[in-house]
Design a protein that fits this description.
- This protein has about 250 residues and is of the alpha/beta class.
- It has two domains: about 1-70 and about 155-249, Rossmann fold (3-Layer(aba) Sandwich); about 80-150, no CATH class.
- Helices cover about 35% and strands about 25% of the residues.
- It has helices at about 45-55, 90-100, 105-120, 135-150, 165-185, 195-200, 230, 235-249; strands at about 5-15, 20-30, 35-40, 60-65, 75, 155-160, 185-190, 205-210, 215-220.
- The strands form two sheets. A six-stranded mixed β-sheet has the order 5-6-7-3-8-9, sandwiched between helices. The chain has a three-stranded antiparallel β-sheet with strand order 2-1-4, covered by helices on one side.
- Helix 2 (about 90-100) crosses helix 3 (about 105-120), helix 2 (about 90-100) packs parallel to helix 4 and helix 6 packs across helix 8.
- The longest helix has 18 residues, at about 165-185.
- The radius of gyration is 18 Å and the shape is globular.
- The model has no long low-confidence stretch (mean pLDDT about 90).
């Protein structure tokens, strides 16, 4: 049985001043699934992610996570947002300092979890370095380790690889797939890249137009275990072409 969180969204609406960003949105995301949300700029992708995380309050409607006994989740932003005066280890330790639910953990246990999180992103040997000593890809790995250190059951990611070069981006995509397979969490991934969403996810949801209307909700007919060969396969590129046509329609 999966340990991921399921998401239930009912009649969700979000208005900002003079702008209706999301209107009457209904969506269910299965526990343990990998779902990508795509669409043009301004269609409400990031707002939806923030509403799921509770970083924004809905104007109306509701977002619920289940099972309620395992509501832990983490958010990874487009920028790594590391504190420059703290080492890699200290940046990953930060969630334990900010979240009172971890106050009963000993420092030894917190340290152990930090090192384990760094091992998951292959950065345990760089724990003492500071952000200015890291490459862009390494900074994003630290950000990912910081998100993983609390053992989340839901990982929300808002274009986390957008600023990376292609080689590093491919590496991070593969690493994320490995983490998803091993951790059995639910991942909701926002991206502008149709190629990236197709390579990574089991299901793609396309938002378009005023009110974040769902214009496509597609489960992908691709192997569960993604390999480098899939990137250039006709099956993947056929799906990308279909998504591109739907986006332009």
């Amino acid at each position: 049985m999966t340990e991921g969180l399921g998401i239930h969204i009912k009649d969700l609406a979000k208005n900002f001043t003079k702008r209706e960003v999301i209107k009457d949105l209904n969506l269910d995301i299965e526990p343990g699934s990998f779902v990508s949300i795509v669409g043009p700029s301004g269609c409400g992708k990031s707002t939806l992610l923030r509403l799921i995380a509770g970083l924004e309050n809905p104007t109306s409607g509701e977002v619920s996570l289940s099972p309620t006994a395992k509501r832990s989740f983490s958010f990874v932003f487009q920028e790594a947002n590391l504190l420059p005066w703290r080492s890699v280890f200290e940046n990953v330790l930060l969630p334990f300092e900010l979240n009172s639910s971890f106050k009963n953990l000993s420092y030894e246990e917190k340290s152990h979890r930090v090192i384990e999180a760094l091992k998951k992103v292959k950065l345990e040997e760089f724990a003492k370095l500071f952000p200015h000593e890291l490459s862009g890809g390494m900074k994003m790995r630290v950000s990912l380790a910081r998100a993983l250190v609390s053992s989340p059951r839901l990982l929300l990611m808002d274009e986390p690889f957008a600023a990376l070069d292609e080689t590093t981006r491919f590496e991070m995509q593969n690493q994320l797939l490995e983490l998803w397979k091993n951790e059995k969490m639910t991942i909701v991934f926002v991206t502008h890249s149709l190629f990236e969403s197709t390579y990574l996810s089991e299901r793609i949801i396309m938002l378009k137009g005023a009110g974040a209307k769902i214009t496509l909700d597609q489960t992908l007919d691709l192997p569960k275990n993604r390999t480098e060969a899939l990137r250039t396969s006709e099956d993947l590129n056929r799906i990308v072409r279909h998504l591109s046509e739907r986006l332009k329609a």
